Amino acid sequence: MIKNIIFDLGGVLVDFHPDKTMRDMGLTNEQIHELQEKAFSPLWSQLDEGILSKEEIFAAMIQKAPDSLKKAAEEFLSKRILDTVSSLPYSAEWLKSLKEKGYGIYLLTNYPDFMFSYHWEHTFTFTQYVDGKIVSGVEKLIKPDHRIYRCLMDRYALVPSECVFTDDLLKNIEAAKETGLNAVQFTNYEDVKNTFKTQYLLS
């Protein structure tokens, strides 16, 4: 019997849109692609891991940026990075409905600690329905490392077989199953909501 539902954040409950933020700064699609490929994407997982300070990682990102885009990289990282996330329109109502039916609601997310703190306070529309959370940047562990799943189970005394986890990345779904969780890859809201109902009998 499923008693708890565990959610990833990016691509599931929130939209992560750095490209849009950079377009709002006036960058072209070509410039955005170049910054993402050369400076941001190669090092972003280190922000999620939280082992190095954000200042160290930002400095490395700016160093990797093409000379013509270093100023833009610095502006994005120092002034606009917190603008890259917004709650998806269905998220609050979805979690509210599940909470009202008696399910425990938990978050398990790869997320930089400083960004999570800000977005938890100012951006997420669903925090009141969350019973517990594990954030990679806080724990210094990152999905799909099995230890981060066990961290959630241990901290909140959850039984893996009584939980179902959803994440948009297949590697994270596979790791969840390997640690004993039920898991559904997130494709879109309606399909996953239907799978929850049909496969796990979630009302």
Mean pLDDT: 97
How many helical elements?
10
Structural class: alpha/beta
How large a portion of the residues is in β-strands, by DSSP E?
5-15%
What's the story with the biggest beta sheet?
5 strands, parallel
What is the H level of CATH, i.e. the homologous superfamily of the largest domain? HAD superfamily/HAD-like
Estimate percent helicity. 40-55%
CATH fold name of the largest domain: Rossmann fold
Distance between the termini: 12 Å
Give me a quick take on this structure.
The chain is of the alpha/beta class and 203 residues long.
Walk me through what this model shows:
With about 200 residues, the chain is of the alpha/beta class. The chain has two domains: about 5-15 and about 85-200, Rossmann fold (3-Layer(aba) Sandwich), CATH 3.40.50.1000; about 15-85. It is about 50% helix and about 15% strand. The chain has ten helices and seven strands. The chain has a five-stranded parallel β-sheet with strand order 5-4-1-6-7, with helices on both faces. A two-stranded antiparallel sheet has the order 2-3.
